[in-house]
Specification:
mainly alpha; 5 helices; elongated
Length: 131
């Protein structure tokens, strides 16, 4: 049985693709709230990211474009690459656990960083599937 998309060899491939995109869409929607937007910009400022507000909104755009390309199956490999770039840069800018003095903050950020490593693994599998 084939999946929902031409490159998907089974329904499991399609489910994986849709779940991966759902993760990014849900986080994207959550980050649109004023509280999360301001928190991210504050953290980007704290970690000395260049132009924190622009950096945040550029990341949001990269996330949205990546999800749209993967869902529409129009240059999905570019979409997956957008999500990979977004995840790596966001992790390096926002989850700098090695700079945290507070053990609880360090552990929380380290857990987020490690979770993103797992997300990257899923994105690499998806990239192989859409090529």
């Amino acid at each position: 049985m084939h999946g929902l998309y031409p490159n998907d060899s089974s329904i499991y491939d399609s489910a994986g693709r849709l779940l991966m995109v759902a993760f990014f869409v849900i986080v994207w929607l959550r980050n649109l709230s004023r509280q999360h937007t301001e928190d991210h910009i504050k953290r980007l400022t704290f970690f000395k990211a260049p132009l924190p507000r622009v950096t945040f909104w550029t990341g949001m755009a990269l996330d949205a474009v990546g999800c749209a390309l993967v869902l529409a199956n129009w240059h999905p490999q570019i979409g997956v690459l957008c999500l990979i770039v977004f995840t790596v840069i966001a992790s390096l800018l926002l989850l700098r656990f090695w700079e945290m003095d507070d053990p609880m903050k360090r552990t929380g950020m380290q857990n987020g960083f490690l979770a993103n490593i797992g997300v990257l693994g899923g994105l690499l599998l998806l990239l192989q599937n859409v090529m």
